[in-house]
Write a structure and sequence with these properties.
Strand content: 15-25%
Radius of gyration: 23 Å
Strand order of the largest sheet: 1-5-6-7-8-9
Largest sheet: 6 strands, antiparallel
Shape: globular
Order of helices and strands: EEEEHHEEEEEHHHEHHEEEHHEHEEEH
Amino acid sequence: MLKNYKNFKEEIVIDFQGISGYQFSQDCITDGIISKMLIYGRNATGKTNLGRALTDIKKTMLGIGYYLGKREILNADSTEDSARFTYEFKFGEQTLVYQYAKFSDQDLKEEKLIIDNQLIFECDFEQKKYNFENLNYINAESANIDRYIQSMDLEGMENEIPEPVLPFLRWLISNVALENDSILLKLGSYVRRMTDISASNVMAYSPMRVKDSFYEALEEPDRLKDLEDFLNGMGIICKLVLKKLPDGQRELYFSHEKLVPFYETVSSGTLALVDMYRRLIPKAWTPSFIYLDEFDAFYHYEMSENVMNFLKKKYPKCQIIMTSHNTNLMTNRLMRPDCLFILSRTGTLTSLCNATERELREGHNLEKMYISGEFDRYE
């Protein structure tokens, strides 16, 4: 759940359990929840901001991905002083809810953790009120709470720039010896493997150190061949060569009678593919959640289908949300009406099966219905 964050003045909820009984495109559902979702929305409806909000927990809980300085996150038309985030996770038979509110990108107002309907802790950083009475529920009663509260005491620092509030959950995971099967460690593992990727040709302009680390990864056995196979599988038939230059730098080439510099000649679509590959495929870990914003901005529609099918096969259990303007993808052959969503200008998110009075079936032409205005009132 999200409220008062950028485009989203009112509460918006993504319910991954909101599935219908469709018997096709079963690869979009995993363990009874939506694992592959495609969101449509007109420009400026907040698709990019939605992805940033969904992965905000990674910054808050683990301190990963903060920008320098503070960034405004509140809805410009709201009178509320904070944005509110609620995440609900299911690990085996346990349910965990993590809630927090922020004044800005880094300024935490409140924080709360609930496990199996039991309040574990609650922090009101504005009023300096804390409740840590149920840490024994997660076998964390040995936590030195006094030390944490002392770190929150900013009195006497009027002439200094205050540090951002340290979220208690982040502190707890870092400072308490949790049991190996702790639900907090499971949460940490899931959140650490979340990623948000926006379609762009950033690799063309990325710092040299980023390319160097990527080239270094390509020197691993079979890694260059893996990238080559990936591109060929996407329909880009090529052979790649990685060369080490006299100055010690590495460079990637297309292999022809003469070597052709890769990044100087590659198309925007191929560049976007390689950037996605760089951020996902070579990692030692398997992503838990991926938000691909306008993932097919540079792709031919067949390439878009190839990428979707690749991701579904490569990461069957990973929750993947993609956003697009490409209505060719609005088809039951790839997705299904309970996994296709419309994000409106007013910040509501509605699945196609809930955006019409018709009972949508496998034979319906969803793209034609969309273009003809069947779902207009939800845009």
